[in-house]
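Changelog note: in this version the structure field was regenerated for every chain. One regenerated record is shown below for reference.
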Amino acid sequence: MELGKTIPGSVDVVVYADEAGEKYNIGKVDFTIPGFKNDPKFKTLYGRSKTEMAGGFLGTVKKVSDSESKKSREELHSKLNDDLKKMAIAQAPADFTLYDDGIFYTYNSLPQSGDSKSSATINEEATITAILFNNRAFAQSIASRLAPDVAKSQVAIVGAESLKLVIKDKDTLSPSNLDSFSFTLAGTLNFVSKFDEEKLKNDLSEKNKKDLTGILQLYPSIKSATAALRPFWKGTFPTSASDITIVIAPESR
């Protein structure tokens, strides 16, 4: 260490109010040391609160019993789970699937609030972590095992959301540092061959309905198709390809 050079430093300490009451409930502030008022140290030595100072009260405080607190927190967790799950589903990308067992909830119990004299409010902070399955990558992975001769880029899946995910030893996993995990997916899954939908729409535009069979011969990955025109008496497809809607349905069994 260089002699004569000031090295900044800090130390964390716990402070207590001089007396009970609400007047010492204050926000984040800096504290000076009055004894150094006429000393250069007055500007270099100071205290700075890291959080607001709250909770000071003089009188009788209502306290929730342990049993009632546990019950209330469990009910609150259930409500938070539902709300967070809805938010996660709404924010999930279109080509991803979110399963119930792929969701992790963590909680942080916060101090109770209320007016302290007649009521008490239980507070909880909740965090959701969700594992999403990329439908495209999932389809390619399964296809490479079950149908290795099929081009992976030409395979898609239908009904992935109906599968049931079970994560092995989920209770022992920490979502904050989860690198890998073991799981099973059970259920019925349909694979479909992909094709160029925009090209098919362009090929169909302005064509007569009876030309559908011949056009489909250019798309060997399509086993069968039917056309529904509106109004029903119209015999040709729309002029604009953007007015044509293609619906891919799983094969009937």
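Spot check on this record: DSSP finds five helices and eight strands in the chain. The radius of gyration is 32 Å.
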